[in-house]
Design a protein that fits this description.
Elements: E1 11-17, H1 25-35, E2 42-46, H2 57-66, E3 72-75, H3 85-97, E4 101-104, H4 121-158, H5 174-182, H6 188-195, H7 199-213
Parallel strand pairs: 1-2, 1-3, 3-4
Helix pairs in contact: 3-4, 5-6
C-alpha cells in the first residue's frame, strides 16, 4: 500500500483496549481535550496487545498507509504498543525508523518531538535511552520467563510429577523376544503383540536396549 501523500505534518492518535467489553472513550476524550486532535485523526481498535503490531488492522493501517516521516503519533500509554517489552521495543523501533515522533501521555518524558532550542539533541537522547531500556527489559522478561519455567519444573520434580516424555521401562521378557525377532524366528508384529506394546514404544525400547548393549 502506498503512503498518503501530503505536504503538511499531522498529528494522529492511536487508542486500543484488549476486549470488546472495554471502553475506548477515556482515551478518545484525552486525545481530543488535551492534544486537540481531530476525531478523524484518532484511530482505535479493540484487540489484544498480544497480537503483534503488523497483525493489528488499525495499527498496521496507521504504519503502512497514513503515518509518514515527520508526523506525530500520540498514545495514552506505552502498553498500547504491545503486551510484552519485546513487542513494545519492536514497534518503538519501527516508529523511530520511519521518522515518526511519539508522545506517550502517561510518561511525559517520552515525547520525541524535536525541540527547536536544542536542535533535536534531547530527542535523540530520549530515543536512545528508551530503546536501550526497552531492550534491557525485553531481555529481562525472557530471562524471567525461563527462570519461572525452570522453577516450575524443579517444583514439579520435587512433588514427584513426571516432566517431559515418561521414562520407558524395559519389560523382563524383552531380551528373549528381541533375540527371536533379530534371529528371524518371529516378525516385528509378532514380537510387538507378544510384548503387548505399541509399535512406537517397541522401537523406542529397541533403541534404548541396543545402546545399552554397545
Amino acid at each position: 500500500m502506498e503512503k498518503v501523500k501530503e505536504t503538511t505534518k499531522r498529528i494522529y492518535a492511536y487508542a486500543r483496549v484488549s476486549t470488546r467489553e472495554q471502553n475506548l472513550d477515556r482515551q478518545v476524550i484525552l486525545f481530543k481535550d488535551k492534544y486537540k486532535i481531530d476525531s478523524k485523526n484518532i484511530y482505535a481498535e479493540k484487540i489484544s496487545g498480544r497480537i503483534s503490531g503488523k497483525d493489528r488492522p488499525v495499527f498496521s493501517y496507521l504504519i503502512d498507509v497514513l503515518l509518514r516521516e515527520g508526523d506525530t503519533l500520540v498514545i495514552d500509554s506505552i502498553s498500547r504498543l504491545g503486551r510484552t517489552y519485546k513487542d513494545i521495543l519492536e514497534n518503538w523501533k519501527l516508529l523511530n525508523k520511519l521518522g515518526i515522533y511519539v508522545v506517550v501521555d502517561d510518561m511525559p518524558f517520552l515525547d520525541t518531538r524535536p525541540n527547536s532550542k536544542d536542535g533535536g539533541v534531547m530527542t535523540e537522547l530520549i530515543i536512545d535511552l528508551v530503546t536501550t531500556l526497552l531492550a534491557y527489559c525485553a531481555d529481562r522478561e525472557v530471562a524471567e520467563k525461563k527462570r519461572a519455567q525452570m522453577a516450575g519444573i524443579e517444583a514439579a520434580r520435587k512433588a514427584g510429577k513426571c516432566i517431559g516424555r515418561p521414562r520407558v521401562e524395559i519389560p523382563d521378557n524383552f531380551p528373549k523376544e528381541y533375540r527371536k525377532w533379530k534371529s528371524g524366528q518371529q516378525t516385528a508384529t509378532q514380537t510387538i503383540r507378544r510384548l503387548g506394546m505399541s509399535h512406537s514404544t517397541f522401537y523406542r525400547i529397541v533403541k534404548i536396549y541396543e545402546k545399552k548393549k554397545i
